[in-house]
Amino acid sequence: MAEPTTQxxxxxxxxxxFCNHLLLATTRDIPTLPxxxxxxxxxxxxxxxxxxxxxxxxxxxxxxAQSTSNSNSNSTQGQAQTGKTRQSSNHTTLLLATTxxxxxxxxxxxxxGIEKRxxxx
Length: 121
Fold this sequence. Notes:
- This protein is of the alpha+beta class and 121 residues long.
- The chain folds into two domains: 9-50 and 91-121, no CATH class; 51-90.
- 26% of the residues lie in helices and 18% in strands.
- Strand 4 and strand 5 (113-117) form a beta hairpin.
- Helix 1 (54-70) runs antiparallel to helix 2.
């Protein structure tokens, strides 16, 4: 029996423009990450939250499998898609601890609610 091969993701980094200090290291492709858009928004990068445990991943995969089986998909296609989802979700992002959060958070009112932002220096 052949052992499953683990795919290693390339690490992408983001550095300070002025001092070249390392700020962010991630296995996600930085240019393809979604950004905030719309009026009054700062066009910041949106990093998806990492899963904290394996049960969240299993629940999501079961929901996907049920939705694909309900649409009369072939069971082998569902298994291949499940494996692909499991493999692509092993991303890691590190925001380096050398940044110091501001003491006071900034509250921003929007038409859809309130947003709390903390400036990292």
